[in-house]
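agent> call fold_tool(seq_1)
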Amino acid sequence: MQSISSRNIKITAKGEVSCVTEALEPGPLKAGEVLIRNEASLISSGTELSRVYGLKAGIVYPVYPGYASIGRVEDAGAVCPALSKGDRVFFSGAHQELQVYSAASMSSLGMLVKLGPEFDWLSSVDASLLHLGLVAMNGILPADLKLGDKVCVFGLGTVGLLTALLYQAAGAQVLGVDTVENRAAHARNAGLHNALAAAADGMDAAADGMDAAEKTQVQAVTEFFGGDADITVDATGRSEGIINAVMCCGENGQVLLLGSPRTDYHCNITPVFNRLHMKMITLIGAFNGRYPFYKKEGSRESIERNLASFAALLKNGSIDPRAIISHVVKPEAAMEVYDGLFNHPDTYYCAAFDWH
């Protein structure tokens, strides 16, 4: 196969992102490989911003970010499930116009799924939300959820908002909490019944631009529920968010760590451990990768099942992608949108690249 060119999003150094045109020489496709032309790809803010702005230790540049793409098959080797030219696929591909992707690892960390006719109603931009929907499901499926449970989700970025909406659809009493009022308002506009903004904690009130007299998140949550929550989820990926999740959780409750902590945070951790111990709280790591792609003996859970469940919520209107994705941009605007997501979280909530 002859050399072709592809527009690619490339992080060249800390704080430097551009859309570059690079040569792609796919050669003969091996078994399990497909050549895919991207149609839309969603930015996973937590993961990608940590790399754009060097928040994750040990980053080596350049980096080609992204893992939530919708595209069309241009050519295919011998793959399973069988794919043909023109098939629309949901895959864990980077923000690249053209790429060779391998289906060798079918898991929550590496997916290549044909979107059949049942997905025709869903635009590629809206369908790009599927992957973060699967990530969000890790924040609810491991929990021992009972009807009417009081649930608080900390952090109303895309994954946090989706997680809160999932709990709401499951019949829980849900509260979403963020430090930015506009993000709380965005969550309410997206269908979350209860969302509020409050300072991360007393020490961080000034840093969050909030008056020290205003309620902290722990105060706001306990006041809203009239006591402790049964289940709390940290979707911020910040250690102070995890602390708040623990301090709001009641006896025999559950705390799920959905976000990935990446930056240093110093505090006296003893009161947190003491509460975990005295309240007999279960702490659950909810990183993506908990479930196999296909159903295995002894467990009902699988990525295949979760994908169908999330798609059903999109179709019945429980989750509206157009109310969640705030910015759809061309790849050439990459630096602008990453800057917006990082420095202007009051107006940039969720963004996708349109590759057409």
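agent> call fold_tool(seq_2)
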Amino acid sequence: MAPKIDTVIIDFEQTSREIMINFLEKVEDINLVQQFSDILAAQDYITENKPPLVIVDISKQTGLSLDIISKLTSSVKNIKIIVLTYDTDSNIVIKSLRAGAREFLIKPLIEQDFIQAVEKMKDLILGNINDTTRCKVITTFSNKGGIGKTSLAVNLAMEIANLTKEKVALVDLNMQMGDITTFLNIEPSFDTSYVINNMDRIDETFLLTTLEQYNKTSLYVLADPPDIEQAEIITSEDITTLINILRNVFSYIIIDTTSSFDSKTITALDNSDLILLVSIINLPSIRNCQRCFELFKKLGYSKDKIKLVINRYMEADDIKIEDVEEVLDHKVFFKIPNNYYTIISSINKGVPVSDAAPNSNICKSFKQMAALVSDSYSYNKNGNHTVQREYGFNFLNLFKKNKGE
């Protein structure tokens, strides 16, 4: 019989505490030992009694709460903290994770997300899983070149590594025209074909010495093969095996793909937990996105698996975000601001944006996205927004005419 996990709830709302207590009753091996309405009142108790699991709402006194969380994670060995808040600002996600929180949930709580987060922390505490075996595979894709998906893959991988301090593999599966090594100005000794040809001897040590570690960070790069001949002999089955092997060592795998729907790309998409479909706001790109969504539907991908990312976004665009969402029947997950000079400067220097322009708006954007796609963040899927406006150009009519409407 597994030991009970002592758990503390901290929430200024009595109703919220009661809801959590009800949820916790559905999770085995959880022992609620104390509940508090204020984190200051709870601090001494936690420091003295060292409960393995703490669930805390930081909606009020956010700064103070994050300071205390940072102190608790430093002083209480192996403590796991789940943060709750009504604040959807992704900067709060970043600050929470840096303070030591392991999970981040938006209120009002969704039962499934809450229980899933508690179950994950329970498994970590009991040793059923560990940080090196928990892995999320994220693939950037666009079926139109020049959209910026490689830049997104590189900078997102770098920011996830910076934020989580966990091992991140950046894999270039654009087998014939890969650019990741150019973007990071590195010349790896080994590549994808080498790893695939040596799968019989792969272990963690092999992978960590074969993949190129980037500047002493927790980011490791697996380059595309240097020769087209080597790329052509790699099969879809090889891609699946490679991803499964990397899952055993890395907490995150970021994959950059070709812009075509070939069998290897589809294999990478099949094996991904998230697909970041990258687009810009113009008519050809949106039409291409429509084709992507049609194929994704045929492949059986759920809507939650696909996250629509708008690159080079400008508020003054003639085509509005809500029009794009209506045409594609899919919410925009994230908007990356248009900052051409900064991106080109970082590419020409062969460094991530965080090194080239750490205070730029686009660097902050990549940091925010890293927080949102990390395993520590759960979305409130009930959120919606309504925008009412008037403007002359009607983008929707272009698509309605095609449908005979």
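agent> summarizing second result for user.
The first helix runs from residue 14 to 24. Residues 136-377 form a domain with the Rossmann fold fold (CATH 3.40.50.300).
agent> awaiting next instruction.
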